[in-house]
């Protein structure tokens, strides 16, 4: 039972991590908690299903298309909602983020209806539902392996973008000193939009994976997932990308174990408990720390 | 090369620049001296388009750059080493330098310029894989200057390079500034250390409460009794 919960928790955890990096990256560059990020995740799932059912796209193609659409949506969100408030007090941007969250949620209800719908199972490759491995009572489905694999590849890709590319280095530079970054000739607004696009694409994948995993999607699914991913980001240390990854996995496992050993009623409670505990005992998170500057 | 004409700028509701007029000619070292809060840094920030110009105009090589964005100004060759150095503490020395050359795509040229920076400041070569934040103040200043040079500036804006550094380090930095200038880069130098600044500059401007109150060749200013009294610490 412990091993099974661990596997389930890991699967859930990498999904949280995928969403959490979006929160943490945006926070890193503009110190904004983008509360609409959960809705981008939700829309990722809806876009994917719509592309499959309405346009007849194959499953994998639809995932990539949903990523691209959400990346564009992220840029749009930044340009339309947040950029005009760049020099306004932070509270204004925060309230706008909540407003965008409500707006996108309701927009989804108008377009797709408020009831939960199943994922387009006919488009999902059948092998994903089969058990891939089974040892001493622990089941690992191909879908779980697929989720873990996709998350791993995405995280690796993100790591490479942030640490090895020109624009990734510019993102880090911007996060450390916006004025200095501008004085290097970095187009600050462009890099911020790029950050939104990157985080949103990761969130879209998470949305699709969850919708397939639970075979359900609904317009309010972004709320709880968003809170949990936010908790993951805080747990790992907000602003730290590796922190968000670790935080997501830790939270997913904690939640699965809590649900398994205590009661599944406390599943969501675990996330909140973790969030509160981190804020009280270690506000900088697991990997969050002030940057060294000797001079 | 650079011309500020009646430039007004504000920090919030504070009228920081009240009609600054000054020029910098190709090949010169021009220094801006004055007390704390006189508007020296603000002047450089308006040139870099970080602080917006409310009234007046700034032209660089005949082109109006008053409303041009910061990254475009850098692209045109006006590069600033800001006050307090503002290196990226979490980026390595090499990454800091790479950010300095952000707008350039010529890999070979960048590598050559990186080597030049390491020739100029050998200590940076030793620390190339270290995060910028682990460097000492003087090393950070060298990194900040090296980073700016990576952009191949035509006009280098230096804001208080001597701030908080030991006298021997300051001397080293000022020598390098002269070398950079001798190699063909025009320099605009903001300094509180007026003596040092005037000793390497061709011309200077004295700023007080957002206005130019005096200007002349470095020698004229060094010999001026009022300047000596107010800014060079003589009775």
Portion in helices of chain A: over 70%
Sheet with the most strands of chain B? Answer: 6 strands, mixed
Q: Average pLDDT across residues of chain B? A: 95
The overall pLDDT of chain A, averaged over residues, is: 93
Low-confidence stretches of chain A: none
> What can be said about the biggest beta sheet of chain A?
2 strands, antiparallel
Rg of chain A to the nearest angstrom? 19 Å
Give the termini separation of chain A: 53 Å
User: What's the SSE pattern of chain A?
Assistant: HHHHEEHHHHHHH
| Class inferred from helices and paired strands of chain B | alpha/beta
Number of strands of chain A: 2
- Coarse morphology of chain A: globular
Summed up, the helix count of chain A is: 11
Helix content of chain B: 25-40%
Protein described:
The complex is a heterodimer of chains A (about 300) and B (about 240). Chain A has about 300 residues and is mainly alpha-helical. Chain A has a domain at about 15-115 and about 135-220. Chain A contains eleven helices and two strands; from the N terminus they run ααααββααααααα. Chain A has helices at about 1-30, 35-55, 60-80, 90-110, 140-165, 165-175, 180-185, 190-215, 220-235, 240-260, 265-280; strands at about 130-135, 140. A two-stranded antiparallel ribbon of chain A has the order 1-2. The longest helix of chain A is centred in the N-terminal third of the chain and has 29 residues, at about 1-30. Chain A is globular and about 60 Å long. The mean pLDDT of chain A is about 95. Chain B is an alpha/beta fold and about 240 residues long. Chain B is built from ten helices and ten strands. In chain B, the strands form two sheets. A six-stranded mixed β-sheet of chain B has the order 6-7-8-3-9-10, with helices on both faces. In chain B, β7 (about 155-160), α7 and β8 (about 185-190) form a beta-alpha-beta unit. Classes of the chains: A mainly alpha (about 300), B alpha/beta (about 240). The interface of A and B includes residues 172, 177, 188 and 293 of A.
